[in-house]
């Protein structure tokens, strides 16, 4: 897909997860972790499935936005755990929120900067299609495995 489309997808995910992270960190919307974690797992599985059956999507930006909304609640749970381990200082919650989100964004940018060049390089080889399918199955399997461990209590 074109680089501009990748930027749109990443930006949509970022805006969405930043919004729900802020809402949840502020206590305005706080869905239970028992709902959030399986939902995140399903978004991961869905990405693996899409990669197997659907090459180009006109809806990629909207999917990324929707998935970002879900992931933001997961990030909020991680932020809450981090803050719970620190001395209580309610005046710095905004600094903590911004710092936490900047850490997420830094990791996301680094991930894109590593993965995209590797994929572009690998695409020049005949084995790329097979490797892409295997990776897609692994992502699908990991997402489904995580979903089942979070909903059924099964250790896979």
Structural summary, described in words:
- The chain is built from five helices and no strands.
- The protein is mostly helical and 156 residues long.
- The protein has one domain (3-152).
- Helix 1 (3-25) packs parallel to helix 3 (60-84), helix 1 packs antiparallel against helix 4 (93-122) and helix 2 runs antiparallel to helix 5.
- The model has no long low-confidence stretch (mean pLDDT 87).
Set down the secondary structure blueprint.
Elements lengths: L2 H23 L7 H21 L6 H25 L8 H30 L5 H25 L4
Helix pairs in contact: 1-3, 1-4, 2-3, 2-5
First CA to last CA: what distance? 34 Å
What gross morphology would you assign? globular
- Number of β-strand runs: 0
**What is the average per-residue confidence, as pLDDT, rounded to a whole number?**
87
- Range of helix content: over 70%
Number of discrete domains: 1
- Uncertain residue segments: none
What is the SS-derived class? mainly alpha
Supply Rg: 17 Å
Q: Which strand-content bin applies to the residues?
A: under 5%
Q: What is the H-and-E element order?
A: HHHHH
Oligomer: single chain
Main beta-sheet strand count, sense and barrel state: none
The count of helical stretches stands at: 5
């Amino acid at each position: 897909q074109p680089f501009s489309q990748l930027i749109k997808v990443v930006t949509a995910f970022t805006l969405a997860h930043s919004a729900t992270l802020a809402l949840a960190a502020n206590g305005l919307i706080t869905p239970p972790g028992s709902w959030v974690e399986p939902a995140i797992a399903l978004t991961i599985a869905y990405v693996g499935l899409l990669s197997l059956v659907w090459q180009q999507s006109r809806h990629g930006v909207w999917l990324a936005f929707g998935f970002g909304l879900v992931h933001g609640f997961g990030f909020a749970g991680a932020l809450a755990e981090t803050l719970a381990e620190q001395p209580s200082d309610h005046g710095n919650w905004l600094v903590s929120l911004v710092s936490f989100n900047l850490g997420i964004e830094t990791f996301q940018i680094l991930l894109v900067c590593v993965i995209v060049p590797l994929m572009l390089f690998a695409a020049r080889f005949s084995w790329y299609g097979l490797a892409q399918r295997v990776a897609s199955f692994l992502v699908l399997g990991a997402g489904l495995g995580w979903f089942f461990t979070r909903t059924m209590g099964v250790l896979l």
